[in-house]
Fold this sequence. Notes:
Helix 1 (20-30) crosses helix 2 (54-65). By secondary structure, the protein is an alpha+beta fold. Helices cover 19% and strands 21% of the residues. The model is unreliable at 1-10 (pLDDT under 50). It has helices at residues 20-30, 54-65, 78-88, and strands at 12-13, 102-105, 111-120, 126-132, 149-156, 162-164, 174-176.
Amino acid sequence: RNEPDAPRAPDESLGRHISAAEARRIADAEIPANERHFYDFANGDGKGNDWYQCTVWAKARWREMGGDDFTLDWSGNGDQVAHNINQALGRPDEHVPTAGAIVSTTQYGGHVAVVEEVRTNTQGLTEFRVSEMNMGGNGWRAALSEEFRDSRWIVQQADGSWIDSHGRGVPGVVFASYPG
């Protein structure tokens, strides 16, 4: 496994870790019931939990931070979200992480997360920590809030590519900076 460097002061940080229960509370508070049908794929588990998609978390977290004025385009798969936001804001796609940014990747067939912390490692390369939902391996039809995590680091390699803290490649990385 390729672990991130030992903990050190972040270059940028939103300054907190939260539990899955707190992430669920944020998602429930920030995404009104009349918007949930966009994310509900009716997996038939009878628990009503299938709407906790990666896109739900990214949208809810930005709304919690005050960055979504309800006009941004959150449609599409996770790998399209950052591009759609950049396009809506009239700016080009970004390839440098900043705290609070949305990050889309083509990993797992399309995923989106929120950059919570950015730092430079001892080799002078960038690494960032994300918060994300729907990462428990159950797939997009069984998106449970318990699949939230905010401890995955994505580390830049000398060739400019990215890998996560489990040594898996993270392809197609695009950022949309927080508009604050």
